[in-house]
Amino acid sequence: MGTTLDERSYYRSLECADEADEASEASACNLRAQAKANFDRHLGAKLYVRKEYSPAENLVLSRDRGKKLRTLYASPALLAAFCTGDADGDMVPDTTDNCPNSRPLRPTDANGCEDTVLPPTPPREAIDAYLDNMGLNVDPRCVGAPRPSLPFFPSNGGSPVTRHLVTNYYWIITNVERNQPPDCELEYQFAVTTVHANGSRAFTTLTFSSQNDPRVITTPLTANLSSVMTIFSAAQGGDAALWGVDTVRAGISAQVVNGNGEASGWTPVRWANVQRYQD
Question: What span, in angstroms and rounded, lies between the C-alpha atoms of 191 and 205?
Fold first, then answer.
């Protein structure tokens, strides 16, 4: 299972935990345990959506991580041992782990040995119907889809942001995500700090769909690369209203999210002057 970006997310969570309260090792360790439990439950849910985990496997993992977290919180000595070392990631400290090579994302008993008993659960169809009613990102067209690739702003010697001087429309150009199933809907998300002519700044977020979104135009850049041009104007309201006609510079980060909520992760911020165009 490729977890490079997930590992980065986990370690970012740990960094945030450590930075949250450097003066209190106990507090930092609490947050570290919480980050680990939440992260494993998040991965278990994603494996369920991909149909790589059964409902029972997802449920027992979630219960296991919750139980482990409560056990660690109840024993300061055990919590400290966990933060010292948990090589196989089952939330049982190495000092008390009798099975130190447990498979990833599997429930274990108090001694760190895998628990293979699965609880009864409703059928997958009933669970999926419930998730549909909750409005969660679970798209059958994206089942089995890999995590989207990290987007990038094509380097063509210009800025990824352009304003049309006549219509006052802006557009942002990034690459087309190609490693997803053809019908899997994608969201192109941008987090942008805009700098205006008077020196003021505003933070804006913009989201565009790969399907049936009139603001999105796909155009070829080269024989092997296509771009997504996302078009918007201040007149559309929302965060786009913060752009106005006087945005002179922008710092942009982008990510791609598929219909199952799998995200590429955010790109580094790219600062660029806004190009002006008039045809």
Answer: 5
**pTM here?**
0.55
Cα dist from 110 to 67, 85, 249, whole Å = 10, 16, 56
Task: Please provide the average confidence, as pLDDT, over all residues in the chain.
Answer: 82
Helix 55-74 vs helix 25-49: crossing angle, to nearest 10 = 170
Residue 137 to residue 131: CA distance in whole angstroms: 8
Residue whose structure tokens are 């450097």: 22
For residues 197 and 246, the answer to whether their CB atoms sit within 8 Å is yes
User: Within the chain, which residues score under 70 in pLDDT?
Assistant: 1-26, 134-138, 155-158, 221-225, 279
Outline where the chain has alpha helix (H).
4-20, 25-49, 55-74, 76-84, 124-134
The structure tokens listed for 107 are 């429930």
Q: Helix or strand or coil: residue 195?
A: strand
CA–CA gap between residue 221 and residue 229 (Å, rounded):
11
Can you give the pLDDT at residue 222? 64
Question: 14: buried, middle or exposed (CB in 10 Å: 19+, 13-18, 0-12)?
Answer: middle
Do the Cβ atoms of 122 and 55 come closer than 8 Å?
yes
Instruction: Report d(CA 263, CA 207) in Å as an integer.
Output: 13
- Helix, strand, coil shares of the chain, percent, nearest 5, are 35, 25, 40
